[in-house]
Amino acid sequence: MQAFWHGMVQSLPFMIVILPFAMLFGVVATEAGLDIAQVMGFSVLVLAGASQFTAVQLISDHASAVIVLLSSLAVNLRMAMYSASLVPWLGKAKPGQRAWVAYALIDQSYALSIQHYERHPRLSMAQRVAYFSGTAVALCVPWMICSWLGATIGKAIPDDIALDFAMPITFIAMIAPMLRTPAHMAACFVAIVAALIFAGLPSGLGLLVAAPLGMAAGAMVEMWAEKQGQVT
User: Fold this and answer.
1) Distance from C-alpha of 89 to C-alpha of 97, rounded to nearest angstrom
2) Are the beta carbons of 71 and 54 closer than 8 angstroms?
3) Where, if anywhere, are coiled coils annotated (predicted)?
4) Quick check: 66 and 108 in contact, CB under 8 A?
5) Strand, coil or helix: what is 147?
6) Which residues contact 10 (CB under 8 A, 6 or more apart)?
7) Which of 38, 127, 172, 187 is the most exposed place for a label (fewest CB within 10 A)?
């Protein structure tokens, strides 16, 4: 139980960005023509902010259902990378626990959990799952509630209140503490540059190009560092 509460407490700083981000989704989704039940269906069943915004934007543009699904899946493919990196820590958890982790895995719960596991490698499986659960509850429940608030009272929010600041700040807060090696820095730099270069590609495809380029750059720098270490 202590690990659960520890995860919740460490998640609290993200509330600064999760709450307005979720409200922004509720506002944007209702403006796109979705009713409150559909908005909540997105936030409860999909539970993936970037994919939710992508889907709503494409719906607003009258894209076909196939394009909406494929584009949202493409944006959310990073979750596959998150899942792979969590296997050494949570791969031996019970099937029900793994299903829970798969459902509640978001950018923030991943970032907090993987850093915690790396700092405390001797945690038991129960402690690892409990910590993840604490982060997930603290982050996902407010997301759902504030999505509902945005959909309900969104029209009453003045236009000069810029809720869209939440997304970039969230990712900066997550990524910055994890850039600990030259390989991390190289991967981040290449991914950013590639994302900017390919930003004009449709349906978020630029991210699909930028992500593997960043990973390849990081892998190359890490291999080079290992060779240099062997030589010296």
Assistant:
1) 12
2) yes
3) none
4) no
5) helix
6) 112, 116, 134, 135
7) 172
Region of residue 186 (phi > 0: left; psi between -120 and 50: alpha; otherwise: beta)? alpha
CA neighbor of 155 nearest in space, from 62, 29, 66: 29
CA pair distance 137, 116, nearest whole angstrom: 16
Position 24: which residue type? L
- Report how many helices (DSSP H) and strands (DSSP E) the chain contains, helices first: 12, 0
**What is the rounded CA–CA span in Å between residue 168 and residue 20?**
12
pLDDT band of residue 156 (cuts 50, 70, 90) is: low
Report yes or no: 90 and 101 within 8 Å, Cβ to Cβ: yes
Query: What is the distance between the terminal CA atoms of the chain, rounded to a whole angstrom?
Result: 47
> Which tokens is 60 given?
């607003």
Tell me the pTM: 0.74
Q: Which residues contact 113 (CB under 8 A, 6 or more apart)?
A: 7, 86, 89, 128, 131, 132, 135
CA–CA distance from 55 to each of 20, 49, 71 (Å)? 19, 10, 7
Q: In Å, how far are 97, 133, 209 from 102, measured between CA atoms?
A: 9, 11, 24
For tokens 């509630």, what's the residue?
145
Q: Whose structure tokens read 């910055």?
A: 176
**What does the alpha-carbon distance between residue 162 and residue 139 come to, in Å, rounded to a whole number?**
21
